[in-house]
Amino acid sequence: MSNEYDIEFIQALNKTFLNEEQIKELEGYSKKYANKSDQFLLREIQRIKPTVPQNVINQHINNLDHLYHMDGFINRAQKQRIDMIKKILSSPSGRGKPDAEGQFFCCGSGLLLWFLVLAAIWRRPYYY
């Protein structure tokens, strides 16, 4: 799948599920994390995870399971990245109590975590 198609697919998906304010937040995240290494993104996922309600983390894991089984959209390398990220999300963390027990994109940290997860899987080019 071409990089151009990946970007168009993700932008269309974002517009379907997110409001204008959330899309602007994602654009800000894209600028902030554009040139960060994969290691940095994975550390950020670990750092942000304790601030996100457990039900939202469970939704992220469930969505990753669905993505994993989407033949034609996911290649072997992306499946390996999904497995790695699911391990990070599933591992216990010294969770403090999150501020809100809300919906999938209830708070900035839930949206940021989902952005980081997707960036760690599909970002081009991959930085090491």
Structure write-up:
The chain is mainly alpha-helical and 128 residues long. It is built from six helices and no strands. It has helices at residues 3-17, 20-33, 38-48, 54-68, 76-90, 108-122.
Could you list some keywords that capture this structure?
128 residues; mainly alpha; 6 helices
- Averaging pLDDT over every residue, what do you get? 79
Separation of termini?
Answer: 21 Å
Number of helices: 6
SS class: mainly alpha
Low-confidence stretches: 1-5, 98-105
Quick structural overview:
This protein is mostly helical. The protein is 66% helix and 0% strand. Helix 2 packs across helix 6 and helix 4 packs antiparallel against helix 5.
Q: What is the fold's blueprint, element by element?
A:
Layout: H1 3-17, H2 20-33, H3 38-48, H4 54-68, H5 76-90, H6 108-122
